[in-house]
Specification:
By secondary structure, this protein is of the alpha/beta class. Helices cover about 45% and strands about 10% of the residues. Bound molecules: 5,6-dihydroxy-NADP and zinc ion.
């Protein structure tokens, strides 16, 4: 454990199949006007909307509707949300949905009392908020992003073909999040699988870096094993509460900053995936899956010992009598087999990417420095071509 760091998590969690009732404990802490943020209507179909509205009314709140947050929320929608918040002087932004609603709420929260353009300030110039921040809370309906317990906010700009994330500080993280695994039962299977791969890749992004003996890596291996185990059960039986609850809890811990402590971290699969997303608007977890194997094959020689450890500790590969490279390759093969078994998308062409887009996607890919190999632009292009 060679890194220097501090650790604090600002979000209070309520977990379990009775967790929604704790909204009653939290609501009195905030003012009257609640911006109720949700997506395309799934919460109306599965009854979550009615249950929340009842609690809000019982607590004497004034509900300000903000519906239609799309997957991969856009800068146009963000501007709409900021206006709703300003016009109604809202006291709390309550996001009910997946990562998109929660990310969007955070972006609104830092922009309501800010005169500058939110996209330019936070997603182009990466400035920190200097204005009053409207508190955010989340009722999570999809496990994957970890947005319920982190400061991340990813916004897409279709006009400029950019999808950019800003990781805000403690003061922007949800004040509280409610995690009821049963709320995820109505997710379409493809979304559940995309979420599972997103979780797994968040762990990989923090695991594949550094050469020191690091407690964070042992935590990461345990989480990966749990995700693999539960995913296989959930794919067979999406209503297995135990598996879905483990997936939901793993998602939170995969990206609430804990397992990245003391590490430089990679995050290149996400940079590639986000650039693909900027061009295709495809489901986040699937964009990651489709670029992962070509990327990991490329960087494996530079982090060989960690890839060997991944094979042995996560996938139970028997290393006896084999070279480091053989073991590492078997680990990536096991990863591929699992990806195929749960049914993620393995090609960016299946997500709408075309050979003509490759140069543009490469331009939209931020190249980060924290992993085992700093890619050149040519290598970015190579990974993308191999992912087609
Ligand atoms: O809009 P509705 O009708 O709610 O439908 C959603 C949406 O179509 C549906 N859904 C969610 N819960 C459901 C449900 N349908 C039925 N029953 C339920 N219980 O699922 C679809 C996808 O939802 P979305 O919120 O877009 O998915 P996800 O949670 O994967 O969020 C994706 C966004 O998060 C960003 C991604 O880039 C993407 O923009 N990320 C945020 C991160 C963070 N904050 O740290 C990190 C991640 O790496 C990621 O980049
Ligand atoms: Zn992700």
């Amino acid at each position: 454990m060679l890194g220097n760091f501090s650790y604090h998590n600002a979000t209070k969690l309520y977990f379990g199949d009775d967790s929604l009732k704790y909204l009653n404990d939290e609501l009195p802490k905030y003012g009257k006007n609640i911006q109720l943020i949700y997506g395309g209507g799934s919460i109306k179909r599965n009854g979550i909307y009615d249950a929340i509205v009842e609690i809000l009314k019982a607590n004497g709140k004034n509900i300000v509707e903000d519906a239609g947050v799309m997957p991969n929320p856009t800068v146009d929608k963000l501007r709409e949300g900021i206006k709703i918040a300003r016009d109604n002087k809202v006291d709390l932004l309550l996001a009910v949905g997946g990562g998109s609603c929660c990310d969007y709420a955070k972006a609104v929260s830092v922009s309501v009392h800010c005169d500058e353009d939110a996209w330019e300030k936070y997603f182009i110039r990466f400035e920190e908020p200097t204005c009053e921040i409207v508190p955010v809370a989340c009722v999570l309906t999809m496990a994957g992003t970890g947005s319920e317990m982190n400061g991340g906010s990813v916004i897409t700009n279709h006009a400029t073909k950019q999808k950019i994330g800003h990781v805000f500080g403690d003061n922007v993280m949800p004040k509280f999040s409610i995690l009821n695994p049963k709320f995820t039962f109505s997710l379409p299977k493809r979304q559940m699988i995309a979420g599972i791969y997103d979780i797994f890749n968040h762990i990989c992004e923090q695991y594949f870096s550094g050469n020191d003996d690091n407690t964070s890596d042992y935590l990461a291996e345990g989480l990966m094993r749990s995700v693999i185990h539960s995913s296989l059960i959930a794919v067979e039986n999406p209503e297995d509460y135990e598996a879905r609850s483990n997936i939901m809890w793993s998602a939170t811990w995969a990206l609430n900053t804990l397992i990245g402590r003391g590490k430089t971290q990679d995050w290149m699969v996400h940079m590639l995936g986000q650039a693909v997303g900027a061009y295709t608007d495809a489901t986040h977890g699937m964009t990651l899956a489709a670029v992962s194997l070509p990327y990991y094959k490329m960087i494996m020689p530079y982090g060989l010992q960690k890839f060997k450890r991944f094979a042995v500790n996560v996938w139970n590969v028997n290393a006896e009598g084999k070279s480091d490279e053989e073991v590492a390759n078997e680990g990536l093969k096991a990863l591929e087999n699992w990806m195929r078994k749960i049914g993620v998308t393995m090609k960016i062409s299946e997500l709408g990417a075309t050979p003509e887009m490759i140069e543009g996607i490469a331009d939209a890919t931020f190249i980060l420095q924290g992993g085992y190999k700093v890619l050149t632009r040519d290598e970015v292009v190579k990974v993308l071509k191999e992912s087609l």
